[in-house]
C-alpha cells in the first residue's frame, strides 16, 4: 500500500473561507431549462408513468440537458458541490415533485437504493426516534449530525420545507482536510489509508459479520492521480463496539481531528436551505452534516428533504477497496431500473 505524501491541488481542495468570499457555487435555474423540466414531468401523465418506473428516455430534455450536465460536471470534476436554486416546489403536488426530481436524477446518473427496503428516494424528516439508540440513522431524527460522506458517488438533497429553527447544512472539503492532516500528522496517514469497519445500521444481511462491513474501508486513498475519501466516524466507532475491537487511542484522535477540522471556521461552509434548493455533493471530495433543528408544530410545515443517491459508473477512478463491503450484504446501493 503506497502512501503518497503530496498535497491535493485540485479545485476540490477548497476552504470555507475561500467559498464564503464568493457565491459562484449557487446556480440559478435558467427559465427555459426549468420550463422544459416541468413539461417533461407533465408528459409523464400522458405516458402514465410515475417514479421510479421511468427512465431517461421517458424524460426528454433536449435543451436543459447541457445545463444539467454542466452542473454535474462541477460536482464530479470541479469544486465538488453545487447549490441549485429556484425550483418552485410550492407549485407542485408531492407526486409531481417526486417525478420531476427522479427525472433529474435519471439525467445525472444511475440512482441507487438507500436502505434495506430499497427506497429510491429517501424522505429526510424527523421521525421522533432516539438518536442515541443503536441502529437509528441520524437523518431520521432532528439531532445534530456529525461530518460524514454517503456510500454513493453523488448525493442530491432537495429542500421541500426548511425547519422552523436550525437545520443548517454544513459541508467541508475532505481533500483540503487531507492537506492539513498531511502537515500535522504524516505518520497517521497509514491508519487512514488502512481504514475502519463500518456499522451497517440495520441494512445488513446475515452474510455481514456483526452487522458491519466485512473488511475495513479506507478513509483516504490515491488512485490514478486522484485522492478520494470515505468518512463516517460515528459508524466506525459503532462497528468497533459491535465487533468488540476497540479502536486505538491514535485512531480515535485521528477521527476526532477530521471532525474538528470539518467544524472549524477555516474549512466549514454553511448553507441555509430555501424551499426548492437542490444541493449536490461529491462524496469522494466532501463531507457533510447538519445542525440540530426545531420543527413547526404543524405537520405540513415539518422540515422535509428528498434525497437521491446517484452513481456515475466509470467516471471517477477510485481504489477498489472503497467498494469492498461498505454496503455489501445489504439491499442498499443497488441500481434502480425503470
TrEMBL record:
Domain TauD/TfdA-like: 48-309
SUPFAM superfamilies cross-referenced by the UniProt entry: Clavaminate synthase-like
Cofactors, names only: Fe(2+)
Pfam families reported for this sequence: TauD
Keyword Nucleotide-binding: no
Gene Ontology biological process: antibiotic biosynthetic process
Keywords from the UniProt entry: Antibiotic biosynthesis, Oxidoreductase
Database matches in InterPro entries: AlphaKG_dependent_hydroxylases, TauD-like_sf, TauD/TfdA-like
Gene Ontology terms for molecular function: 2-oxoglutarate-dependent dioxygenase activity
Organism superkingdom: Bacteria
Stated name of the protein: TauD/TfdA-like domain-containing protein
Organism of origin: Usitatibacter rugosus
Native organism taxonomy: Bacteria, Pseudomonadati, Pseudomonadota, Betaproteobacteria, Nitrosomonadales
